[in-house]
Amino acid sequence: MRFINIINAISMTLLSTSSLTLWAGQRVGNGGFIVNCPNSPEVPVNGLHLLDYLDGELRFPALGKVNLPLDGDAESKARFVFERLKRVDPIRAEKYLAELDHFFDPEITRFLPQGYRIPTAGDFGDTMTPTNCTIVQVVANTIPTEPEEPKYWISQPLWDQLNEMVRAGLIIHEIVYNDALLRGHSTSERARYFTFLISSDKILTIDQKTYDERVLKNEL
User: How far is C-alpha 208 from the chain's CA centre?
Assistant: First the structure.
C-alpha cells in the first residue's frame, strides 16, 4: 500500500499548479502514460502498468500477453522487441533500433527531479482500464525550439518507481509514436496498439500478410 501511496503523492505533485513547469505554451507532441491501480480486492489488477500493455491485454486478448525477457534492464528489453521485429519488418526495426541507440543521450532525454511538472499531454484517445485506476503521465515528448533542447522529459520520481518492463514499454511507445506522429496521427491510440502487438505473444507467430494488414489498417 505504501508503494501505491507514493505514486499517488507524486501524481498529485505533478498535477498541482504549485509545481514548477518549464513551458507556458502547448509544445507537447505526446506523452507516455502508466496506469496506477490501488491494492484492493475490488480492482482486478493492482500496481503500476504501462497503459499500452494493460489496455492492450484488455481490448485485444487474441494477441495474448506481453512477451518480454524476464532479465535485463529497460533498454535491453526494448532492444529485444525491436530485434524480434526484424522477422516481419526489418526496415522499421532498424529505424527503431537507431533511435533506441540514442534515446538516453543527455541531449535527447532529460530526467526532471521532484518539484518540476512535465508538460501535460492528453493525447491517449480511447482507453479501457479498470475502475478506480488512474492514468498518470510519466514522459513528455516535446518539439524542441533550439538544437540544445532535449526532446524527451521524464519524471524522475515516477520513473524510479517503475519496474524494468514498464520502463521498456515507455521507451518502445515513444519511439513507435514518434513514427506515428510523422504519419499524421493525432492521438496515441493506434501507436499503443502497435506497441502492444510487437511486445506480445502474437508477434512470435504472426505471418507476413497479417502483419502487413495490421500496419496498413493502423496507418503505420
Answer: 25
